[in-house]
Amino acid sequence: MNGRHHLNPGRILALGLGLAAIIAPILSPASARAQGAAITLIRDTEIEETLRVYSEPLFRVAGLESDSIRILLIGSRDLNAFAGPGTMGIFTGLILESKSPNELQGVIAHEVAHLAGGHSARSGEMTQAGMRPFLLTMGLGVLAALAGNVEAGAVLASNASFFGTLGAMGFSREQESRADQAGASYLEAAGLSGRGLVNFFDNFRYQEVFSEARRFSYFRSHPLSSSRIEALRARVERMNHRDAPDDPENVRRHQIMKAKLEGFLNPSVAVVKCADPKADFPARYACAIAQYQLKEPDRALKLIDALLAEQPENPYLWELKGQILFEFGRTAEAEAPQRRSVELKPDGPLLRVNLGQTLIALPDEAKIDEGINELKKALSQDEQNSVAWRLLAQAYDARKRDGLARYATAEYNYIEGDRRQALIFALRARDLLERNTPEWRRANDIVLATEGDRQVRGGRGGG
């Protein structure tokens, strides 16, 4: 199978290595018009892990259950972050602008304060500036498109429910000040310095004098003022951990996270930086990714092999190698590095999705069956990954297991938000599956959950 397809760049942007998304318009945000920024949802195990490491000590001291909060990585050049019920979003523009782990943790602490305080977006504004459910959790590449179905790839959506109403998460100046103070307290309780948050605000103090339309989104929804910064500074300077240094491991994670994003989002810049013969690991990592993005797979693979010689136990390097091989049509060669990535990080469901998509693309029934098992394992770790359900449906169809193929398609549509199609496929699955099996019961649950929905009353045609 050839992994390279001619995709319409206005519809699909494949970032690879778990960084993949469908571009879709925001309904009405001034920010996108002002900043000229496309907005995507990015899935990447390594970066998600870093953000989770930064956030968990703050969730803990704030009394929040970490497992109940989804951290979303939003691909946009805009500098922004938001917090809503059970969800915190961090924009890539914010990460790239942050100068240290402590700065980023400071912003996270502020957002955690909004979560812990139950601050809600202003009514009306959220609806007016909300996003259409549009962003795809595509695992590793635009999986459906790479599997040969470009049209399906263009409409896949994973975890779209998180994006029903993300818009401008606006809070009052009073709430912002309270979140500053609470965030500083959480940083102190976690043994972290509050100076990162102060420095972050100081770096963008000039935003206060800009007109509303010219400000970064973060400083429209989180209004900044000199008095607010000084009140926070005074509080932080009285705290015991104000001089606490960044954990060296977090510094390493931060450098790699920023380098990786630069390689994907600014490949021409990343390539120039790694021309230095003394370039460090993050710069060379970024360069390998950049060469991949610039359609130079052989150069990228050569760089990755050199990095693997230094870090043979790094699952993300094996993941990247397998991703490049798969996307450039070397599917059989992709299997071994993808297997190695899963061996090294068995708790990474996106890595299993990557392996699963390769196995089901091989002309071998035993490999397809193994791919089915890998996708099922991934779903046992992340049951809301609609791409894994879509690939599972494709694999079941290849093995002529019609009832299971329709059931997996029902799950995919249910997660993606197409309740009418979810009902259609769940009804067909229920008719074909053996009664009272787990899949039959789940298909029945989908039928019961969707049958009375007004969205599906218009008819049950299709599929």
How does this structure look, described?
The protein has 463 residues and is mainly α. Helix content is 58%, strand content 5%. The protein contains 23 helices and six strands. It has helices at residues 30-35, 45-61, 92-97, 101-117, 125-129, 143-146, 150-155, 173-189, 195-203, 217-221, 226-236, 248-265, 267-273, 281-293, 297-310, 315-327, 331-344, 349-361, 365-381, 386-398, 402-416, 419-432, 438-450, and strands at residues 12-14, 20-22, 40-42, 70-75, 81-84, 87-91. Strands 3-4-6-5 form a four-stranded mixed beta sheet. The protein has a two-stranded antiparallel ribbon with strand order 1-2. A hairpin with a 5-residue loop joins strand 1 and strand 2 (20-22). Helix 13 crosses helix 14. The protein is flat and about 65 Å long. The protein starts with 11 loop residues before the first strand and ends in a 13-residue tail after the last helix. Mean pLDDT is 78; it is low at 1-37, 120-170, 206-216 and 459-463.
Secondary-structure topology with pairs:
Elements: E1 12-14, E2 20-22, H1 30-35, E3 40-42, H2 45-61, E4 70-75, E5 81-84, E6 87-91, H3 92-97, H4 101-117, H5 125-129, H6 143-146, H7 150-155, H8 173-189, H9 195-203, H10 217-221, H11 226-236, H12 248-265, H13 267-273, H14 281-293, H15 297-310, H16 315-327, H17 331-344, H18 349-361, H19 365-381, H20 386-398, H21 402-416, H22 419-432, H23 438-450
Parallel strand pairs: 4-6
Antiparallel strand pairs: 1-2, 3-4, 5-6
Helix pairs in contact: 2-4, 2-12, 4-8, 4-9, 8-11, 9-11, 12-13, 12-14, 13-14, 14-15, 15-16, 16-17, 16-18, 17-18, 18-19, 18-20, 19-20, 20-21, 21-22, 21-23, 22-23
